[in-house]
Amino acid sequence: MARKIVDVTNSASLYDILSQTPKNFNKNNYFLKELQEKVNAEWEYRPNRVDIEYEIRPQSNINVGVGLQKEWQPIEVVIQTNKSQKGEAIADDNKNIVFKNIFEDRFRIGSKFRFAPNFNLEASEEKKDVWLGINMDKTSMTANLIIQRCNGVLGSVYLDKQGISHYHYEPVIQARDISSTSFSYSEVAVSPQAHLTITAQYNEFTSKYFINQRFIVGARYEDEKNPGHFKGGQVYRITAIDKDYNLSTWNSEDVGLIKLYVELTESSPYDNWDDRIAYQNDQDIHLTTETAVKGYSIAFKTPEEIPSDLYSEELKFTPVLISEDGEEYAESSLKIKTTYSLENWPSRLPLEDQSNYINFAEFTDNNEYYFTLSRKKIYINGELVVSCVLSKEDSPSGAEITTTFKMVVRKPEK
User: Fold this and answer.
1) Average pLDDT score over the chain
2) pLDDT of residue 139
3) Which of 263, 270, 369, 371 is the most exposed place for a label (fewest CB within 10 A)?
4) How many structural domains comprise the chain?
């Protein structure tokens, strides 16, 4: 009976008028005011009234500072089970929440909520599931939103305003419905598929996802042979991104949800399984050394073999100048200078900030030159490049002699 006004003069119940929706649908409408009063009067008697939390986010999804700490605030709602057109209850991972304020407009498709299975607001964060708004009804007389439980997270790397790398874990819906899940469902057989459809909130993190970006997806378990470290899961890469479902006609960035279409891909020895962060660079990484002058080279007395990885444990390096015959030039070795750099360092940042990641020091002791290296924190964007240089003025050959090697600084501690 929407948009139809009938004569209720002789109606047995005053609430009969609540089903009549006149054409002038606005906040001053008499019928809407009556409806809000009815909802208020009955609210405290609703048996499925619970407390949940909602995420406070800026109105603009994208124009916010990376690293912004989101806040969660409590709200009281009525939570309901969704039913199909046949009246059958849909899976428990889908809920419908009804708000007390019939004009509620703070929430939309893409809004996040969270609550524990027992709706205890004091429960720890790891016990609270995150739910994502996937559909809503703005034409009904009461405000409601359909939410779906996020059944996993995607780990990625982002740079804060200072250019420092951090990990971010985005709650996502990993293809829960049977039409796009990791299993192709039919009444005859269930077969595993190599493709997934992943739905996430469109925000300052997910808007930066790109084609061929890799993620670790799936359950993990502790490695029995290496306690404290984890295995399990599979690596997927993005093959297509759908972020075209705008919530407004003219604002191209007003997007609630983003869909990622991913396919199974091979893993890399540089994938971080402990932190669930997949490596994004496909080129081979190996230890390299270069010598610019034939007949002389800079070798290392210590260590005997330069390790490919650098961790927090301090390593001592003693470079020396030697000839093709293996003769050591002690006096020239004292004049070797060493520099280091991190690959793909953000150009907007001063080079001095690289010391936030690497401990480096040079020493001369007992007529011997050496330097030490250790890692302060993981650097994701590239490798550590170390160069030992003997200037042409100090070189017995009259030419500059250089030896360079690389070390991986992205792996978690052993």
Assistant:
1) 79
2) 67
3) 263
4) 2
Q: Tell me, yes or no, whether 226 and 138 share the same domain.
A: yes
Neighbouring C-alpha atoms within 13 Å toward the C-beta of 93: 15
The whole-angstrom separation of Cα 159 and Cα 380 is: 10
* β-bridge partners, 369: 364
What are the tens digits of pLDDT across the range 273-327?
888 888 886 444 444 444 444 568 888 888 888 888 899 999 999 999 888 777 8
Let me know if residue 201 belongs to a domain: yes
pLDDT, tens digit, 9 for 90 and up, residues 209-219 = 999 999 999 87
Which residues share a beta bridge with 242? 259
CATH of residue 382's domain is: 2.60.40
- State the Cα–Cα distance between residues 18 and 10, nearest whole angstrom: 15
Return the ∠ at Cα 208 (arms to 202 and 212), rounded to 5°: 110
- Determine the Cα–Cα distance for residues 21 and 1; give it in Å rounded to an integer: 7
Query: Widest CA span of the chain, in angstroms?
Result: 115
Residue with tokens 């302060």: 376
Q: Is the pLDDT of residue 182 over 90?
A: no
Q: Range of 168's domain?
A: 49-264
Distance CA 400, CA 393 (A): 8
Residues 98 and 240 in one domain: yes
Q: Which of 264, 288, 310 is the last residue of a domain?
A: 264
d(CA 375, CA 62): 33
Q: Domain check: are 258 and 403 in the same one?
A: no
Cβ-Cβ contacts under 8 Å for 272 (sequence gap 6 or more): 278, 279, 410, 411, 412
